[in-house]
Amino acid sequence: MNDEQKGSAGSDQPPTESTSLEGDELTDQLADSLTMASEKTPEVEGAVEAEPEAVLEEEKVKDEIEIQIDLLKDPDWAIRREACITLGEMGDERCVEPLVHALRDGDWQVREAAIEALGMVGSPAVEYLVKMLRDWDIRKPAIRTLGKIRDERVLDPLVGQLRADEFHLDAMDALVDLGQPSIEKLLPLLKDREEQIRKRAVIVLGRIKDAGVLDPLIEMLKDGDWFTRLSAAAALEQVGDERGREAIKTLLKDPDLVVRMRVERILAGWKKRAATA
């Protein structure tokens, strides 16, 4: 063993210091090699140079969003409306909360623009809008907006609003706007114990005009509530399938006079349309 080896073996210094130095040297070498590679590779150089441009573009968009949000407070309703439209076109989730606040705007045109804008933003707005259903003052436009968003998360909240007497018409319109995705949630309501809920579900299904609901609607012609039976007949007329036409003929012998009279008019109108088609 030479002196250097003896000195190393007899040293009181822990071996980790030497290891650490080697690790630092290895790190330096790796950094140097990456630097040299970046200097030699044009593609990498371009990527590095493009990064600040991407950051600047992101900051530009961010600034534009903030500008439009500030314009929502402008005293001119036309400027506020245009700001809503612009924010909707941007479609950024940062636009959601300001647009929801715009649903309270004193001008109806601004409120309408905010509804359309939130519909354009889409899914990022769902969670916030569902929370707004607890707010009496904003519930109506929130329901309308949810009907414009193709997201399965809107269905249960909207179906729940069918039980709210003050807002059930808005919920019905929203479910019709959503169309076919609403059907699966509405069909169980045809057996609800509340007559009003069964009737509302029947009406919405008729307005959706999907032939796939023919059998459930035909079954509703036997409902114990006369108005629900009549609603089912009207719904079958809207669907327009001949099977529905034959089915509602049974109501010509309904025990309720109003149902019989109304069904006669439905069948007469159906026949007239078929003749002129």
Tally of individual helices: 16
- Report low-confidence residues grouped into runs of 5 or more: 1-24, 33-50
Choose one word for the global shape: elongated
Distance between the termini: 110 Å
Strand percent estimate: under 5%
Would you kindly provide a brief summary of this structure?
This protein has helices at residues 3-9, 16-40, 42-71, 77-90, 96-102, 108-121, 126-132, 136-146, 155-161, 168-178, 183-186, 195-208, 214-219, 226-239, 242-248, 257-276. The chain has 277 residues and is mostly helical.
Notable features of this structure?
mainly alpha, disordered N terminus, 16 helices, single chain, 71% helix, 277 residues
Please describe what this structure looks like.
The protein has 277 residues and is mainly α. It is 71% helix and 0% strand.
